[in-house]
Amino acid sequence: MSLYLGLDSSTQSLTAIIVAIEGDERHVVFESSLSFDEALPHYATTHGVLPRRDPLVATSSPLMWAEALDLMMAKVAKSGLDLRQLASISGSAQQHGSVYLNAAWLQAVRALDANGPLVDQIRGTFAREESPIWMDSSTAEECAEVTARAGGSDALARRTGSRAFERFTGPQIRRFFKQSPAPYRATVRVHLVSSFLASLLSGSDAPIDPGDASGMNLMDLASQDWWQDAVDATAPGLREKLPSIKPSTTVVGTLSPYWQARYGLPAAKVIAWSGDNPCSLIGTGLVREGRVAVSLGTSDTVFGLMRAPRVDVTGTGHVFGAPTGDYMGLTCFLNGSLARERMRNQFFMDWAAFSHALDSTPPGVHVVLPWFEPEITPAVPLAGARRYGMANAGANVEVRALVDAQMMTMALHSRWMGVEIDTIHATGGAAANRSILQTMANVFGATVYQFAVSNSAALGAALRAAHADLTARDSAAGWDDVVRGFAEPMASTRIAPDARRHGFYRELMQVYAACEAHALEKGPDPEPLLERLRDRVARAG
Ligand code: XUL
What we know:
- By secondary structure, the protein is an alpha/beta fold.
- The chain is built from 21 helices and 21 strands.
- Strands 1, 2, 3, 5, 11, 12 and 13 form a seven-stranded mixed β-sheet that branches.
- The longest helix has 21 residues, at 499-519.
- The termini are far apart.
- The mean pLDDT is 96.
- The protein binds D-xylulose.
- The site of D-xylulose has 15 residues, from helix 13.
């Protein structure tokens, strides 16, 4: 039997999952999570984000991520499992966030001493104490500059898989270079959250995988290497500061002596880390084209595997590298779980009451655009929910309208992927809520399935670790074989769409799209459309 560890450093928490594989025997044997706010209160984060002075700026602490890793490895060591069987480890991390390291980094990471905590040994290695994360939307100016310098939006999208996005690492690096030229010059390495944590585990300077590198506006999708024009368009001297890009299956090294001596762990192989969405692709079993997954986490995302890159000409979505060596299409929505939580708290509900509100309230002819925070899809720089056809609606209707809106915006903005969505693999914390998933089924007109493991990113990381080990032993072991028994939708959880409701949502979605266009000053007043739908509903009784 072999054990494989997957870690997921997300926006709000660090999760570890260990899977055990012995032929057809496959089990999750350990799962543990720690919340940054609760476990590491001295960093003073809220939902994993450092105190925000400017609503457009969102940063976190790389030191906190490292300290969390130390705490979690201590928990793993005490799991009671026979960790001599731990063959390999991989990880997943929130995408786009960047870590800026100075000249002391390389020596420090290679010489970690088991006699002292990790954080004390890397404290002096940062050229920038705070890391900008994916929730940051402060780089509109830098996006415009990078776009112009790299030959325009279409060229950037075609070469890198995405037009310039505020949270993408390239525009973030450019802003740092412009605002803090001296610390930028003192930066010898810019890591992503994923490659930073892989470096700490392996005691080396880890590469970035194509899945996470494609969230930077810097990688050439076709060659899976840095695109020099984009690198030059971003900041001077950047090429030398970037790690290499290596396939997601790369063995970066072995667990460094720090972890072995401090926690009695074996010299397990460390496999390149990737972004949370590429890892979730594996953790929801999407190793073939055709189906999509919807992840309901801090961000809500819709994604699916693509054999060949089909870049979104509307500029909404992204093409990333997939851990299988293929590609994945993805659209990301910022107002996910924090918006659901905000609504729940506003009306003093627990999750049972939230579900009851959904179950007891049919969709109505009104729309809320759920932009409580600046939104990524569609691009909404100024926060503030907008309401159409609803005033003083009351708690239940507000909850229903919010979840309807979250599902409608996902359905509308994932059309570019060109997939006829008839089956959805639902994952992320809120995928445990069947009332939310019933709304998903009704809006998309698709069958929705849940999974035994809700953290598909951590599971995907564990399965990527397993894949690297199994293929090293038997080159015929494919992805289908690796995900089997773990990342399969549970037949008993099947949620079928209600055809009548779906018919209504198809009409409401047109109104929703019109409201969105109006709010973004791209379309006329949608009131006549709302009126027409109200009439039709009244006539139908
Ligand atoms: C994807 C994105 C988020 C983060 C955090 O592009 O920004 O999904 O990866 O989960």
